[in-house]
Amino acid sequence: MMNCYNEMLEGDRVREPYAMLSEWIETMPVEIRQMKQAEAEALFRRIGITFAVYGEGGDPDRLIPFDMMPRVFLQAEWRRLERGIKQRARALNAFLRDVYGRAEIVRAGRIPARLVYQNDAYEKAMANFTPPRGVYSHIVGIDIVRTGRDEFYVLEDNCRTPSGVSYMLENREIMMRMFPALFRNNRIEPVDQYPELLRRTLVSVAPRKCEGPPTIVILTPGHYNSAYYEHSFLANLMGVELVEGSDLFVDGGFVYMRTTQGPKRVDVIYRRIDDQFLDPLCFRRDSMLGVPGLMDVYRSGGVSITSAPGAGVADDKAVYTFVPEMIRFYLGEEPILRNVQTWTLWKDEDYRYVMANLKDLVVKEVHGSGGYGMLIGPRASKAEIESFAERIKASPGNYIAQPTLALSTSPTFVNEGVAPRHVDLRPFCLCGDRIELVPGGLTRVALREGSLVVNSSQGGGVKDTWVLTE
């Protein structure tokens, strides 16, 4: 394993955030740990916390590997992260308002026009339309990695429909159920207020034609979707209906939900389906998942859609390189959280450097996700590197490259006991009439020794994230 920052240890000394867990680890007999691990897996299976992976054969619904060893942050560490996350969410929404309006940042030459207007995620149907409160991305998932005591970097932004918040909440629930003494003896910030904060955010962006308390629904593609558990989980916690496209229809400039008591008007749709499937009259004509006429109602102020169609133009991996400039341009501030150094292969100089150093770099598809479509140079074979190089040559602008970061490690329970494993963090920032987030997020952990890929679809697991109160 490369020389990485160990979040628990500094030399032989246990760092302050983990001091209260050190004795807990040392005094837990192996048989108790194994029993508790089996109990956690049984709870996950009973509750139905699975992640669907298709195309690999066998049962696509897989249990999310859960590590009982929490990841811990001091309050001071979290406060800095929180400021940086909120700053970034404000800038991303300002960028979306701008590029669907006057495009001042493009006019000023701060970002190339083609990265915006030739981007597959840019939706012409949103041009010159401003959603309620000027918010386009209502749930921003920002993936953060750590490389040192005070060194945090944003790996990527997720402005469309970031998933994983259900695992954040269930991780905490299961830990509290299995180890109540840990929570009695330590002051840990709660995360269970997230569903209420999410509901409040959605209420705050009700459309201008809304009359009375808004009716909210979660729009899901259905139970075959990989995040369907999360859709139903959030609907249940917020006390709103979980619907599919066939449950909704447009009439007289409004959206209605079919119910056993007759049609009921819908004001806010928290959609968990991709842009192209939202409305067959506006996007893909063959879509059976969306609602015909939905976009006309949206643009006329009869319904709100969260997050807005076209929000994905802000989280493209090539656009990502310009987020620090967005912060300076729109907010007049210096970025609190830094980007990872990134080479964009549509630039000749960057292309030449990356092609000469593939074995040392991580190369990603601009529109890739889930750990797919990427090359981790130091861990790839010569044949894999040569094959990937041919893909890059065919379409250089479809790739970006980054250095192989020495991701921090967090203590993790493994068969032999406790060992360091690489982690990242996805906090969920809510944007409505205010910007807020719960203290913590989803920590994903690469369970295979030496692996840097934390995605669930690639064998990663999850663990509870603690922020200690002062």
UniProtKB/TrEMBL annotation:
Among Gene3D superfamilies, the record links this protein to: 3.30.1490.270, 3.40.50.11290
Where on the tree of life does the source sit, at the highest rank? Answer: Bacteria
Circularly permuted ATP-grasp type domain residues are 70-446
Q: What's one Pfam family here?
A: CP_ATPgrasp_2
User: What's the protein name?
Assistant: Circularly permuted ATP-grasp type 2 domain-containing protein
The protein's organism comes out as: Paracoccus kondratievae
